[in-house]
């Protein structure tokens, strides 16, 4: 027991020194009445971004993980800890976080500030709902804490706010027991309402741990129910089957024709399950082959494989400008309107696939105090995550209009989009959806008025390169950066 205690003590000593440095930097900007941006080092956002060294608070070294506490079933981590490192750290002890986002590079801080979720959110809510307390440097440099019993409103409102309440420096993450393997059952259905019914029934089955689905097109939907198992009853999926998981699913639909009565079953290691959509960033890898007119076969996929992890894909999106041509949006849509929204997306963007997963109700995950009062009309309905990923029009104006139609239709159906992606609302539209008076009241209470607002941040990101496409050069630069280990592609010299 002595060694872990010593390790934890040293980690805490280093942590306090890093926090003091951040406090000093924030206080400097506050005292000089200057706005600043928080530089994280990398991103899993598609918003165009650029940072200047003399206008940032650098948190890119905040990546310490503390020992797992099996008594409280929690683990403390700094905001830059990525999901793959967090999961590996916890799995050594037979546990995982209640929510593990599907991309390895998504960080603890990013998950908290960006309303992230995954296929266990029907049980636990969003990632921020599984954070029991935080430590945060406020806009004047003050160090504060928040939990479910102390500054509870700060814990709630700092979540999903894109860092506009301060800089979160430490988070306590709740854990659950895990086994080495996951069994995945796949069923094909032809209608969103049928998928919805199956989802709802599965939420009541205690033996199921994960629920999600993929909409491949009209009449072609796969619903997946997954559970922890100690040992697989047949071989686990191979590396390339995991890396091209969406294609693996689609292949099963064609060859095995799974039904609700006779599902297709595959096994994966728990780590592979957690990050099954990481490679190619869902199905972006397949789109990349199409974009560059490269044939897809066993050889070309093997050759491209080292460059298709989600970290590299996001790096390439920013370097190449292709984020201005590919739709990458996530929405939360109430159960009563989710079919209408999926049908609208299918008509508006035929070249797409959609990720579907049930969450908890808007009231349970804390959305009712954040959005337009009309959300109260559906506050007790289950929210569905609808991830829309596909190739849009190359024409910038048409691409802009397409994304606006998606955003505004989600609002009409009393849903909301997640703000990690590019935003196309006007300022008036934005504050009609998000509750500005509550937001400003909370910012004033916690001394965050000197920080950019959520809309300021989104608007600023829109002006840092939108419309500039350099696909071939951008991909080559990404490959070079990966080869030399350069991760600071967002930071100007």
UniProtKB/TrEMBL annotation:
One of its GO terms (cellular component) is membrane. It is a single-pass membrane protein. Pfam families: FAD_binding_4 (PF01565). Residues 1-178 form the FAD-binding PCMH-type domain. Its EC number is 1.3.1.72. GO terms for molecular function: Delta24(24-1) sterol reductase activity; Delta24-sterol reductase activity; FAD binding. Keywords: Membrane, Oxidoreductase, Transmembrane, Transmembrane helix. SUPFAM superfamilies: FAD-binding/transporter-associated domain-like (SSF56176). GO terms for biological process: steroid metabolic process. Its main location: membrane. It is found in: Membrane. It comes from the Eukaryota. The keyword Lipid biosynthesis does not apply. InterPro entries: Diminuto-like, FAD-bd_PCMH, FAD-bd_PCMH-like_sf, FAD-bd_PCMH_sub2, Oxid_FAD_bind_N. This is Delta(24)-sterol reductase. It comes from Sarocladium strictum. The lineage of its organism: Eukaryota, Fungi, Dikarya, Ascomycota, Pezizomycotina.
